[in-house]
Amino acid sequence: ISLLREVTARAFRRSRLGPASPLRCRRRAPSRRSAYMLERVQTAVVGGGVVGLAVARALSRSGREVLLLESESLTGSGTSSRNSEVVHAGIYYTAGSLKARACVEGRRALYSFCEAYAVPYSRCGKLLVATEEGELAQLDAVAEKARANGLSGSGEALVRLTSAEAARLEPEVRCVGALHSPSTGIVDSHALMTALLADAERHGATLALGSSVVGGECGGSDAVAGCGAGGRVLLRTADGTQLACDEVVNCAGHGAPRLAAALGGMPRSHVPAAHFAKGTYFALSGRPSPFRGLVYPLPQQAGLGVHATESVIELVVTDG
Question: What is the pTM of this model?
Answer without folding.
Answer: 0.83
